[in-house]
Amino acid sequence: MERAYTLVELAAASGRALHLREGAVKAERDKQFAAVKEKNGAVPDKWADADVQRQIYGHDCMKVAEESLMRFLKVFSSCVLVYFRLSNNRGVHGPTTHQKF
What we know:
Layout: H1 2-18, H2 24-37, H3 50-57, H4 61-89
């Protein structure tokens, strides 16, 4: 969730920086873009910045999802084993094929 908030804030900041009305701030932003063309400055459009692009597009959501699922399954399977061990110690057995749930 934190990553999503970061990306939303980055988009909002980019919007504030790039969508300017006339004036000194817009002129300064335009100077920054001109400097980028001559390889003398940082990119004012953060979405075009190589580091930001790595942060955004370098994120492997499938890997994160798989790791999270594996952690969940490990905890869930441990809970199921504990439940059945406790149930069997009390003489309670899981449902059989002829019982209704």
